Amino acid sequence: MAVFSKSPVPRFSVEVYQNEYLPEGGREVNAIVTVTSTGGGTTGGVPLRQASPPPSGSDRGPAAGVVIMVDCSGSMDYPPKKLRNARDATAAAIDTLRDGVAFAVVAGTHKALEVYPGGGRLAVADPATRARAKDALRALTAGGGTAIGTWLRLADRLLSSTDLAIRHGILLTDGRNEHESPDELRAALDACAGRFTCDARGVGTDWEVKEVTGIASALLGTADIVADPSGLAADFTRMMENAMGKEVADVALRLWTPVGVEIKFVKQVAPTVEDLTGRRTAAGPRAGDYPTGSWGDESRDYHICVQVPEAGIGQEMLAARASLIVPAADGGAPEVLSHGLVRAVWTDDMAASTSINPQVAHYTGQAELAQVIQQGLEARKSGDFDGATAKLGRAVQLAARSGNEDTAKLLSKVVDVVDAATGTVRLKAKVADADEMTLETRSTKTVRVKK
After folding, report:
1. Cα(296)–Cα(239) distance, rounded to whole angstroms?
2. What angle is formed at CA 296 by the lines to CA 279 and CA 11, rounded to 5 degrees?
3. Are 152 and 169 in contact (CB under 8 A)?
4. Is 331 left (phi over 0), alpha (psi -120 to 50) or beta?
5. What is the DSSP code (8-state) at residue 261?
6. Which of 390, 405, 388, 397 is nearest to 369 (CA)?
7. pLDDT at 56
8. pLDDT-based confidence at residue 450 (cuts at 50, 70, 90)
9. N or C: which terminus of the chain carries fewer CB neighbours within 10 A?
10. Distance separating alpha carbons of residues 29 and 120, to the nearest angstrom
């Protein structure tokens, strides 16, 4: 893997927060692993790490690629301004592309159509190609159905047409995926997972939250609602700026555990809750890799829970080693960017063994917050109003306790809060679709521990 020295290489650090002390017979070890990348996002959007050396005769080939997928189904014409806003948003995203970044625009209906540049290839951003791409957007018209898996497969083919280190998609939809089965969409996501990341947005209120969040989850991107189409341009610009800041791709969290240690779960818990447990791929004896996608200047938190063998008072052991790795371009041993250790120590000091680490306690609550919001909204939809009140009341209590003010505000549009501290609420008789969908879409967003 070539590393270009014109800018500093991003540096990764790993910090482990835990209470390593267990009582006699204790077996469960919890730790929050904070991963921070610094020094990235400083190269004008041109990633430092490339999968291969740049072509001869040039300083540097395109190291990043982005495909923008725009819903052009018939519903995008109702109201007509929706498609106009989508065109404007796509143009704004194109303007945000840095020179040298490879890109394409795809129109999505019940099929996928290359809008620009065409020919199964990517264009390289410069003033001329950005202008031609924006001109091509004028041809976007609404008509046909929605088959999102087809759009994703085309994006994958385009991003695979040249050698790129950073591969990213931006997907916009306004409706349900009605022209392919859930199994077809799942197959497309499985085929694309690990090949590129993708941010997904739903515009208006006629789309399915679980479809959009499921796409972002599978492809390690972000999901959100843009209830008012007039907000698309600002949102697309932010997404593209974020994509341009990515410096290192295909980073994995590798967990090595000693004989007898069982991994119970691995979750990203900040900036959003994402269960990575089922995404493990074997990486040698007693080691497994969990995908984390692409990184720029940012910090994320992961909750690791392992079960260790029983041991006597005074004994201690390494429960797990967490490392950040990137694959080697030549197929050799991956590069270890940083690592941290999770320990277990058995003690008869009850105060030490019963203390809960503040970070662990905080993120346990944040994960529960996301869960009870989703359960409460499902109960409300099914007519179980008592169950919805209980779950959403618990959500209000957890949001207040953790200082998650954004989620608290979203909850207040669905329930009337009587007492946040005790979680006493009343369901609102009428709730706008946009408010309910916003709460559901953003339910997994977390806040970090207050210092």
Report:
1. 13
2. 95
3. yes
4. left
5. -
6. 397
7. 34
8. confident
9. C
10. 50
CA distance 22 to 415: 40
Single-letter residue type at 350: M
Alpha carbons 58 and 51: distance in angstroms, whole number: 16
The encoded tokens of residue 207 equal: 């789309």
- Picking from 296, 178, 279, 198, the residue whose alpha carbon sits closest to that of residue 244 is 296
304, amino acid identity: I
CA separation for the pair 48, 324 (Å, rounded):
17
Cα 185 to Cα 443: distance, rounded to the nearest angstrom? 23
Distance CA 280, CA 7 (A): 33
Q: Quick one: tokens of 28?
A: 């469960």
Please compute Rg for the chain using Cα positions.
Answer: 23
pTM value surpassing 0.90: yes
pLDDT tens by residue, 311-353 = 999 999 999 999 999 988 777 888 999 999 999 999 999 999 9
- Count other C-beta atoms under 10 Å from residue 368's C-beta: 15
In this structure, which amino acid lies at residue 424? T
Give the Cα separation of 1 and 50 in Å (integer).
6
pLDDT digits (tens, 9 = 90+) for 124-165: 999 999 999 999 999 999 999 999 999 999 999 999 999 999
**Rounded Cα distance, 215 and 188, in Å:** 10
Helix axis angle for 232-244 and 81-96, nearest 10°, is 30
What amino acid is encoded at 172 in this protein?
Answer: L
Instruction: Please tell me the distance from the alpha carbon of residue 86 to that of residue 67, in angstroms, as a whole number.
Output: 15
Tokens 């591969």 belong to 167
Neighbours of 81 (CB within 10 A): 12
